[in-house]
Amino acid sequence: MKPDTTDATPPSATPPQLWRGLEEYMDSPAFREAMADEFPEDAAEWTDPVSRRNFLTVMGASLALAGAVGCSPRPAPQRKIVPYTRQPEQMTPGVPLYFASAVPVGGYVTGVLVRSNEGRPTKIEGNPDHPASLGGTGPIEQASLLDLYDPDRSKDATKSGTPVPYEEVTRAIRRTLFDDRGQPKRGVRLRLLTGVVARDTTLADRIGALLADFPEARWTQFEPCGLDTVRDGSRKAFGRELTVTYDFAKADVVVSLDADFLGAGPGHVRYCRDFATRRRVRQHIPAGQEKEYTTPEKMSRLYVVECMPSTTGSVADHRLPLLAGQVEAFARALAAKLGVEGAPAPGALPDAAQKWLDPLAKDLLAHKGKGTCVVVAGEHQPPGVHAVAHAINNSLGNIGQTVFLSGPVEARPDGKMVDLATLTKEIADEKVDALLVLGGTNPAYTAPADLKFAETLQEAVKKAKEKKKDFFRFHLGSHQDETAALFEWHVNEAHYLEAWGDGRGFDGTAAIQQPLIAPLYAGKSAIELLADVTNAPVREGREVVRAYWRKWFTDSKQTGEFEVFWQEAVRSGVIRGSAPAREAKAPALAPGWAAGAAPSPAPAGDEYEINFRPDPALFDGRYANNGWLQELPRPLTKLSWDNAAFVSPATAKKLAVEKEYRWTAGERGRTEVSILTLTYKGRTIKAPVWILPGHPDAAVTVHLGYGRKRAGRVGNTPTELNAAGEPARGFNAYDLRTSDALWFGNGLKVVRTKDTYFLACVQANWVMTQKDPLDGHIIDRAPVRRGTVADYQKNPWFGKIPPTAAGEADPISHNVPGPPEKPDDASGAQFRKGTTYGEPHEHKHDEKGKDDHEHGEEHDRRLLPLTMYHPNDALYPDAKIKARRWGMAIDLSACTGCNACVVACQSENNTPVVGKYEVTRGHDMYWIRIDRYYEGTPDSPDATQTYFQPVPCQQCEKAPCEIVCPVGATAHTADGLNDMAYNRCVGTRYCSNNCPYKVRRFNFLTFQDWATESIKLGRNPDVSVRSRGVMEKCTYCVQRLRYAEIVAEREHRPIRDGEVRTACQAACPSGAIMFGDLEDKTSAVGQWKAEPANYGLLAELNTMPRTSYLASLRNPNPEMPKGA
Amino acid sequence: MPQIFPKGVNPLARLLVLGLPMMFGATGVGLAAFYRSSYATGVDEVVPQPVAFSHAHHVGQLGIHCLYCHTTVEDSHFANVPPTKTCMNCHMQMWTSADLLEPVRKSYREDKPVVWNRVHNVPHYAYFNHSIHVAKGVGCQSCHGNIDQMNLTFQSKTLLMEWCISCHRNPQENLRPKSEVFSMTWAPGKQVDGKDQVWRREDLPNWGQVADSNGKLVDSKWVGDLVGKPRPKTQGELGPVLKDLYGVRDAVTMTGCSMCHR
């Protein structure tokens, strides 16, 4: 059914303050109609390709079977118990163990702790000891677990696609490299192609040893989304390669020049944590935690100049949308304003940017010499921008204070390194005898289009065949991907959780990559393969890694026993003191730092600037077969399963793209958009368009990582065609990417076609909107309370909203459960008492007071007993043990919308992946969603503010869902959890209808994968796997609560604050989520909730949510131009 | 209008007025009885096992402690079935050639586990935890029956939800002093070697020790109050004391859905 377009209600006179999408901003009748429904129309209909008749046949058969099996009066069939024959040490069946390891992404590692249930890795947590994690993770680290269980992983060693024994492959490599007596054939023109490999690691050492035997050998490291510009920038500025790291915890003023330091890059998890310490504003900072929180006066200020809206830009206090090509001009102009000596001449800048320069420079100069500001250049900007940023930091005295320079992290043996272009040319010229590709890189898919890597290789193979010349090609990789298809020999690579290894984090700190499981498919790591090929005396992965670190231990003159060092390194996952030393003082600028041509001008006329960015979830495309990441709604676009060409609303208008997305069949997740033809340097692709508020005009951004041809069952779909009609997911933006414009370039031509394409976008799923019953307008429910630090200093309680109905004397947030005792600060006391039942009673039940008050006088009179929450101290007033009161607080000032919590929740709670088609029908199953709101007008991108709000189940004390369940499948526990008993649920969905927060998820179909064996291994055994017809929702990770309770009660002690953490809280890199027992007077969550900025989402509905929010604070510079 | 039914049917109609409800009632009672019968619950039914292991022999006659084999019961939700190595600890020395033990020896030889049939099948959506029950003074016997007398192991309780809930509502009826948790012969008030039961230090939480303000372990007040004193002689008196002593929570807490279902 089409949305009812006859609705005569005129659009709202004033647009909503906060809006999720353009259609909401414009408040069209169609939008309102679609929003009014709890579930999208026909959400419950069976419209799968299976015909109805077919379905009935199948159902008939299952009913017959059910009759035979399900109704058997006998007990359930016996299950088996399979004990060990010899039980391993440390292992207690049923008790999970945690091991330290390291997740490699793009050549850099993040330290993690991996949970092992009876030997199966089931969950990834951050490693608090590792400097790149400090306990947090990003979505990719979380989801890398699923890669281990990817059913499409390469499972065999192959020759031309046919499985062969592994030894046959190693023999073949040996024949190519060594003669009969085992001596290296020194003349072999060996070429190695890898992703980035960190310096001073086992793999780098092994490759170095191999190269030493072959003088003609060359090594290429190719990372499509790497840090080349950062490296080149440091070389330009200081004349040598340096690693740049930042300390955002120390910075009062942060200026980002197109740097998404909170959302991408090797150190972003750590940076999130550091940055958040200056954004979590508190009135009362507990003693000893001064480094975790900040006072309003000391809140930092973030300026972001960027093209594609990023998570960093979204949390900025001031964001300037600027073409990527103009950032260099901006940087130069800023340097000139700051009085940096020898600053290069700036180019032309738009007015909005010009207006920024004076106040920004003033703000920075106020911090000159104090080492409390920082200018960060992004890896998508050319080396020139980095050089200017270095010069600015140098002149402001930041180097050594907030900016640190240290030795390089990436391995680049001198004289042995060639880039991919040179390698491709050598292949074309038949100057390569053997090409070895070692894991982590997929050049046939990711190489810049102008190199024609795949075609060149194919051509060379053909020529070698004609000339009967040997051209040995070997590929080590986790999948039979695009590159593997071009290689004769292939060995399946072990996942990082299957093999020993090591790596270095963003700052160069080494971490041991410890395996948790034997290779599922007998895969090999690059280290093991090289050992086998070179017939090294030590070949077992662990021993090779140990041998390397033994050597390092001796060479670096560490004290103590090696064995002690090794055990500690493996246990903690970190090798202390292994980071390269920081430069003691700021190095002198190289003479030519300011050299370089004037920045590229803005695109002229009908041309556009094209921007390439790695996908926030799929990265460079290597995670394309990971369902958790594919489905993950991207932080800003909220698109799932697809990439798109992002344009600003004004550009969309120019291209005559409809501003309003068309929903078909009332399905609000299914948005019909125009297809654009993008032509750049003679190459053309077709891409669906997506209008993104905040994007600068005259530019188009595309995400890399889609359009894979050989990714697997998730990344390729024969039945779903992309915009170009190919059986791939999304379009391949690498087809436009050339080696001279890796990140952006001018000269893109865009044409709108008449075709349309369906995108799955969750931005309108699960909205908490409500129509005003009188005039039909959508009520502004102020989901995100927001303000500036100035507002906060004037009135810290600004987030509380006034009562909505007559007779309600107290501010609504009274209704948010808080800590049990009033803080001593009288000024805010009336806002803080708010416990449901926890107020101390001075009087007995039957006692008559002087004003004849009833029991419960102190309670809010609005509280009707419409609840199933019976805390035991209310039922048993003399109970000796008080029930715990679990609660959560989320600091919206710290949230960057990065999605780590979403994937962590999915991993912890066995939440299914539903697929693009189901997402378009509003069937996504995330227990925690991140709502993204815009504020401002979409037509002026520089005036748009963005807010993120993670919404898990609010665990209302007066839960509207409970009172409508006809079978009592959802009820309250004494500790205040809103429980969901799956085995009791009959699927009426009334609970979801009645939930004002829309956090309940229904299994409309069998979304769980019950068939794929490998997927079963990765599930959390402590959480039921839900099947069709069952409602589910966030449980506050009740399995973790109960486990912690049992451990504490066994020891007859209270649960320590922080002993139990929910999955989302543990994963959050910014520490934006706090969880704990409100009954515990010292709990951190109680302190958060006692803050004046604390408010309850839709608390005016009297739901008494246990989850509450701390209002979002921004720290704008009053001198900045208005609207910026 | 002529009558449809002849007059002779009247008694039948009267009978039905009373009889129909009784029939429905009887059907209901019958179904409920069937649902709880040993046929439907599997109570008292011996489950065939690859090795005819006798608890009566090992526990009842030889007196091997539960924890010798079921080592994880105090630490894990799962009371493990012992690894083959545990069997072989003794059977490398004794009955080394008994045919009965061939599957065990074969398992040890070939490093392939013995696959046992589970006797107590709790539904997969019920998350039962052994360790907390043992810690709070629920005896093995309370749920598993007189294991020490079972030649072949069988389920002695229904394992129906109502059975779980009945105890979660009234835990004091099934609590025993901690030192008696693994006993198969204990009963409240029962004399041991002709003497009345007295409180022992092992009965107290954390062996009667608590941390003082300096974090040093000192004896709790319970030690002076209880140890050496006679235990109450009936469950009615003993249960509430134990419930207090072990911090067993109240019925509202213990019957919350997520206590068992997650």
In summary, what is this structure?
The complex is a heterodimer of chains A (about 1100) and B (about 260). Chain A has about 1100 residues and is α/β, with parallel strands linked by helices.
Taking the sheet with the most strands of chain A, its summary is: 7 strands, mixed
End-to-end distance of chain A, in Å?
Answer: 43 Å
Could you name the ranges of chain A where pLDDT drops below 50 across 5 or more consecutive residues?
A: 1-12, 46-56, 60-70, 821-864
Q: Please name the CATH architecture of the domain at 18-36 and 603-764 in chain A.
A: Beta Barrel
Report the helical percentage of chain B: 25-40%
Shape of chain A: globular
Please report the first level of CATH classification, the CATH class of the domain at 18-36 and 603-764 in chain A.
Answer: Mainly Beta
Structural domains of chain B: how many: 2
**Percent range for β-strand residues of chain B:** under 5%
| Biggest sheet details of chain B | 2 strands, antiparallel
Alpha-carbon Rg of chain A, integer: 30 Å
- Based on secondary structure, the structural category of chain A is alpha/beta
Q: Strand order of the main beta sheet of chain A, please?
A: 7-6-18-17-16-8-9
Strand runs of chain B, count:
3
Placed side by side, the strands forming the largest sheet of chain B appear as: 2-3
- Count of discrete alpha- or pi-helical segments spanning 4 or more residues of chain A: 31
Span from first to last CA of chain B?
65 Å
Derived from helix and strand composition plus strand pairing, the structural class of chain B reads: mainly alpha
Averaged pLDDT of chain B, please? 91
